[in-house]
Write a structure and sequence with these properties.
- It is a single chain.
- This protein is α+β, with helices and mostly antiparallel strands.
- The protein has one domain: 2,3-Dihydroxybiphenyl 1,2-Dioxygenase, domain 1 (Roll).
- Helix content is 19%, strand content 36%.
- It contains five helices and 16 strands.
- The strands form two sheets. An eight-stranded mixed β-sheet has the order 2-3-4-1-13-16-15-14. An eight-stranded mixed β-sheet has the order 6-7-8-5-9-12-11-10.
- Helix 1 crosses helix 2.
- It is globular and about 50 Å long.
- It starts with a helix and ends in a 6-residue tail after the last strand.
């Protein structure tokens, strides 16, 4: 199934709003908040259009960032394509909540967005470009039409182990919901469930990596390194103050590629 990009573009031109300002959540006690979801696509414009159709807004300073309350989405060109969608990787899907599922579904259906089979009255999975799975659920209590909700990991290991690694690395507590482990972070949740089959790492797939934004990235990475965390790319400053001022990359033990940033939105 393919997303009808031309239908979505026509739909958007009727009501596209001005670029958005900051929407990332305030940091936790560790100085960390949800940052971004980094996607790879042959058609970057089509990927951006898909997420704008869901309710994302281009950032006022960084139009490559599509903002939702709690997270930013950024797409980069993969000229040679990707090695697969999110299903089959250590991050099976991403999730958003909407205030009114029926209204949102009606709007997206009119825009040509496709759904996986089995959508219910208050939840379902969207078929995004390049095999990105996007879960949509309803939360009538939220103030905004749509907001980011979670990253869902599926790994062939004990979910407690993966959740504990993230909790210790990013300063959060783990709660259990049946066979699922959950970590609440500013901006969204990390959800861990067990995969019955082997999974691939995220790097090179359509959801290439996930990102967290920090106040003091240099100090944070130094602390993690002292704990034995090995970085793919150690802390480094970037020259342009309008974009992220510093980055570091690490791969978790189950293959999820993670970017740590400082000043993702260019506020400082």
């Amino acid at each position: 199934m393919r997303t009808n990009v031309f239908a979505i573009l026509s739909f958007l031109l009727m009501g596209l709003s001005a670029p958005a300002t900051a929407q990332l959540a305030p940091v936790n006690a560790s100085g960390l908040t949800m940052g971004h979801l980094h996607l790879a696509a042959k058609d970057v414009a089509g990927m951006n259009t898909f997420f704008i159709s869901l309710g994302g807004k281009p950032h006022a300073l960084r139009p490559d960032l599509i903002l939702f309350p709690g997270v930013a989405v950024v797409a980069r060109e993969a000229k040679d394509g990707t090695s697969g969608g999110s299903d089959g990787s250590s991050v099976n899907h991403i999730g958003f909540t909407v205030k009114n599922f029926k209204e949102a579904k009606s709007k997206w259906d009119a825009a040509g967005v496709q759904w996986e089979k089995g959508a219910k009255a208050d939840r379902g999975f969207l078929v995004g470009p390049e095999g990105i799975r996007v879960e949509i659920t309803e939360d009538k209590s939220q103030a905004t039409p749509i907001k980011f909700d979670h990253i869902h990991f599926a790994i062939p290991a004990r979910t407690e182990e993966a959740a504990k690694w993230y909790a210790q690395t990013f300063g959060a507590a783990v709660t259990k919901k049946g066979d699922t482990a959950v970590i609440d972070l500013p901006g969204g949740k990390l959800v861990f469930s067990k995969s019955s089959a082997p999974v691939a790492g995220t790097k090179g797939r359509s959801l290439d990596h996930i990102g967290f934004d920090l106040n003091n990235l240099e100090g944070y990475t130094a602390t993690l390194a002292a704990r034995g965390i090995k970085f793919d790319t150690p802390y480094r400053k970037l020259p342009n103050p309008v974009t992220t001022s510093a980055v570091a990359f690490v791969t978790d033990p189950w293959g999820t590629y993670v970017e740590l940033t400082q000043d993702l939105e260019g506020k400082k």
